[in-house]
Amino acid sequence: MSLLHELRGAVGWLTLDRPAAMNSLSRELMLGLDTQLRRWADDPAVRVVVLAANGRAFCAGADLKEVSAPVAAGEPDFIDVATAFFATLRAFPKPVLAAVNGLAVAGGLELVLACDLVVAAESARLGDAHANFGVFPGAGGAAVLPRKVPVNVARYLLFTGRTFTAAQMERHGLVNEVVPDGELAGHAQALAEELAARSPLVLSRMKRVAAQATDKTVSDALRDELLAFRDHQRSYDMQEGLRAFAEKRAPVFKGC
Hints:
With 256 residues, this protein is α/β, with parallel strands linked by helices. It has helices spanning 27-41, 64-67, 78-91, 107-113, 145-148, 151-160, 166-172, 184-196, 200-213, 218-233, 236-247; strands spanning 3-8, 11-16, 48-53, 57-59, 96-100, 103-105, 117-121, 125-127, 163-165, 177-179. A hairpin with a 2-residue loop joins strand 1 (3-8) and strand 2 (11-16).
């Protein structure tokens, strides 16, 4: 078993569990992640997902022994599996929080880039590292990193293969919060529970509009936001939120 999954209240935890391999991404691991994300996408009991890892590394990237391994005719190769999994992760309709411990490089950094929020332990280090082995990124290293951090910082990480501390990445905007090593899991759970108390419908709609905004002009992005608002205005959750505000009580959201 290379992946652990469990529910902690309304928070689904996906924990990479290949510590001896520094949680490198194997076909089995990515297929397991893809399958569980698809199950949770339509499960109303799961409102937020935390992606975490056991051992001294969050993820050291792709399992290079498998990248070029031959496959049977008609079977998806490693890159096919990786492409499908990362597409599922990016399109996941609920908030995904990365809880980063230890090293997150190459495909591990690309996992972080595909998440919505990032909490990192003080000892964590993050970087691209593909250039160290003459490997080209294939899941967002070159394409997404410059959208998450300043372009000159992205180029530095891509070209040198070096890693930055969690605190450095927080200053550059990739990491949202840095916490003491022993508090990572508890802090990630607390933040996830805070998100889970929000309207799942509004978070899903916000996530979609925000994800697409950078590919649009400002006027087109505003138009998309207004259309989403019009749809949301008719929702139970918005009406419940307004009622709760007027009645001075906590809202009870249903996600519809």
